[in-house]
Amino acid sequence: MPASDRVKKGMAESSWIRRMFEEGLVLKQKHGADKVFDLSLGNPIVEPPPEFKSELVRLAQNPVPGMHRYMENAGYPETRAAVASQLASETGLTYTASDIVMTCGAAAALNVVLKTLLNNGDEVIIFAPYFAEYFHYISNHYGVPRIVSTDDRFLPGLDALDTAIGPKTRALIINSPNNPSGVVYQDDFLARLGTLLQEKSSRSGQTVYLISDEPYKRLIYDGLKFAYPSRHYANTIIVNSHSKDLALPGERIGYIAIHPECHGRAELLDGFVYCNRTLGFVNAPALMQHAVRRLQAVSVSITEYQRKRDFLYDNLTRMGYSMLKPQGAFYMFPRTPIADDIAFIRELQQELVLTVPGQGFGTPGHFRISYCVDDRTIEGSLTGFRKIARKYGLC
Asked: Which listed site, 225, 229, 243, 271, has its alpha carbon 20 to 30 Å from 176?
């Protein structure tokens, strides 16, 4: 038994996203990559903005002595200051460099925060549908996920949240724009959420921390604006990544930002730095910290993503598929025409179209489509979607 029981259990419950991606690799080997239409993984096809390439060239041609060495575990002070300055300008809050810890993407940031916060058996509330890896991150640090459902528009019910918060509740994770639904939370909801969390924390004497997972915050459509949870609740911890807004998923660069007025701020920051080191991340990649320092206000264009969204949404709804039109990110989360979403995505797979079942996001009866892919993949998938729609009488 070379692997631990916990790891074997985790592997058995491995993310459906990765499972479908890996099955897609097998199908591509069998049928040819041009015959397989993989809509399973949120791996942006767009290239980083030109400012990123210019910054890399500048750094390569004007290297600073020591720029690839270790730095303090929280990251370069100049980079942290740049992140804080951008957050301060966006939120109106007094973020400074001392509120920021640079990390190896949002995944590392979440693990660092959860490692810092959780005692064995502490509960972390997540709203379904949720990013599947949250389960594993919480389990990594011996926490217990507690799921709260959402309504038919994927908006959380605050009455259900009120009931779910108990003596073991340590944190709540929110993700807006949401993966997988594309829903964007608005200020009115966040204001009510902040009021509820403040009341529950005051009543129990134990702070419930709000962890806001924000990698898609610049990918929002139709004139909507990102609403900042930190404006509505002081005990907010932001985790963010440049994987999506700068199209750098493989570079693993992100950060933690703690609200300047957060309860226990100083101790938590010390904990974040300690856990950044002892979890083995040590520090965020040095070159990427230099590169993103001047790019905090830069983002990929959302025009291409919105065009892809509109094309796919229009075609699928004409075929009879039922879904909310995504407001942000680059995912769709339609209903399946049969109750068994796994059986449905297996039927699509027979047509060489790869999607992810809603069960992987805690919401059976749906399936996730990732449209951050090339046009050939989106257009080629329509034949398979249409064939299955006809089979179930959608069109």
From this structure: 271
Nearest residue to 182 via CA among 160, 155, 161, 158 = 155
φ and ψ of 353, to 5 deg? -110, 125
> Taking a C-beta distance cutoff of 8 angstroms, is the pair 358, 365 a contact?
yes
Alpha-carbon distances of 267 from 120, 132, 263, rounded to whole Å: 19, 29, 9
The pLDDT value given to residue 2:
85
Residue burial 148-169, b: 16+ Cβ < 10 Å; e: rest: bebeeebebeeeebeebbeeeb
pLDDT digits over 230-287, tens only?
A: 999 999 999 999 999 999 999 999 999 999 999 999 999 999 999 999 999 999 999 9
Helix axis angle, 105-117 relative to 133-140, nearest 10°? 40
* CA nearest to 151, candidates 124, 187, 189: 189
DSSP string, 34-101: GG-EE-------SPPPHHHHHHHHHHHHSPPTTTTS---TT--HHHHHHHHHHHHHHH-S---GGGEE
pTM of the model: 0.96
Cα–chain center distance at 116: 20
Q: How many CB atoms lie within 10 A of CB 55?
A: 19
What are 336's two structure tokens?
Answer: 């399946």
